[in-house]
Amino acid sequence: MPATCSACGASPAALRRPKTGHALCRACFLAAFEEETHQAIVAGRLFRPGETVAIGASGGKDSTVLAYLLQLLDQRHGYGLRLLLLSVDEGIAGYRDASLAAVRRHQRRSGLPLHVVSYRQLYGWSMDRIARHLGPRNNCTFCGVFRRQALDRGALLMGADKIATGHNADDVAETVLMNFLRGDVGRLRRGAGAGPAGEGAVPRCKPLRHAYEKEIVLYAYFQGLDYFSTECVYAPQAYRGYARALLKELEAARPSAVADLGHSRERLSLRSDLRMPARGTCQRCGYVASQPLNRICQVPMVDSGSELIESHGAQSVAEKKKHFSS
Ligand SMILES: Nc1ncnc2c1ncn2[C@@H]1O[C@H](COP(=O)(O)OP(=O)(O)OP(=O)(O)O)[C@@H](O)[C@H]1O
């Protein structure tokens, strides 16, 4: 590594940027990362003044950096946002309880309001209980559908106009790879944009979708941010892990592979006569569905316990509100 920072030419270089290869000092790296995130927000028109934004806070590095950065950039550039932290407790012992503790620590430091919604309260089931019914496979698929809806419902109850998630460039590239490998054209078309996405009740955006995971880790490190870094106990079974391993190999050979995959998806052109899955509403619960019943209402264990359907579909919003903690 060169002795001096290639940006300021004065301070000693502290790192080589994984994204660009530039050798930078700590201050120049932090400034570049913050400015790039601001530019992504401005170019993507992700927010409007006066909006209430619920930040999906998992306690992991990405959403911790996102929450920190949005607060910093909002103050610096006067976006005029009302920022909130929104966490979903899936009920995964030894994982989510510890990561929620990290969210609460961030909440205390930042002063941002925090709301927690749980699967148990919303659906009557914890993810651990679902996993016992389903066995080791498909847990991440179900959990993803449950979480998407839980974030929507939490955001609606908090009066949020938008949900911001910490998805980064590696997440986007993995998703593109996975959808290619599965031939899932519907998700390829709608899955990797900056948002607002068309799915769900509340528009979503991903302000860090151009940020490399390695740089997010470096940013968190240099800012001394406190986050939870253990993988979910169900993740090793997920197909996404293969896409992640493949991406790491590709990145080692060519670092731009991460960004290039995201760009490929954006520029992808699909045949005009291609039939896309219709998006409607679930006949049972009324939330987004591409089939008569959405994935949650199709969970096989509903036969062995109607609790899930009843608590998911039959409660009024007023009844559900009393379940939410703040
Ligand atoms: N339990 C949750 N509660 C609230 N938001 C969540 C939760 N899980 C995921 N998200 C949101 O979705 C994004 C991507 O999810 P992913 O599963 O990659 O998160 P993670 O790896 O657990 O944590 P992070 O992305 O914060 O490092 C997160 O950055 C966060 O914004």
UniProtKB/TrEMBL annotation:
It holds the Pfam family ATP_bind_3. Keywords: ATP-binding, Cytoplasm, Nucleotide-binding, RNA-binding, Transferase, tRNA processing, tRNA-binding. The keyword tRNA processing applies. It comes from the Eukaryota. One of its GO terms (molecular function) is ATP binding. GO terms for biological process: protein urmylation; tRNA wobble position uridine thiolation. ATP binds at G56, A57, S58, D62, V88, G166, D171. SUPFAM superfamilies: Adenine nucleotide alpha hydrolases-like. InterPro entries: CTU1-like_ATP-bd, Ncs6/Tuc1/Ctu1, Rossmann-like_a/b/a_fold, TilS/TtcA_N, tRNA_thiolation_TtcA_Ctu1. Pathway: tRNA modification; 5-methoxycarbonylmethyl-2-thiouridine-tRNA biosynthesis. GO terms for cellular component: cytosolic tRNA wobble base thiouridylase complex; mitochondrion. Residues 53-231 form the tRNA(Ile)-lysidine/2-thiocytidine synthase N-terminal domain. Plays a central role in 2-thiolation of mcm(5)S(2)U at tRNA wobble positions of tRNA(Lys), tRNA(Glu) and tRNA(Gln). Directly binds tRNAs and probably acts by catalyzing adenylation of tRNAs, an intermediate required for 2-thiolation. It is unclear whether it acts as a sulfurtransferase that transfers sulfur from thiocarboxylated URM1 onto the uridine of tRNAs at wobble position. PANTHER family: ATPASES OF THE PP SUPERFAMILY-RELATED (PTHR11807), CYTOPLASMIC TRNA 2-THIOLATION PROTEIN 1 (PTHR11807:SF12). Belongs to the TtcA family. CTU1/NCS6/ATPBD3 subfamily. This is Cytoplasmic tRNA 2-thiolation protein 1. It comes from Mauremys mutica. The lineage of its organism: Eukaryota, Metazoa, Chordata, Craniata, Vertebrata. The gene is CTU1.
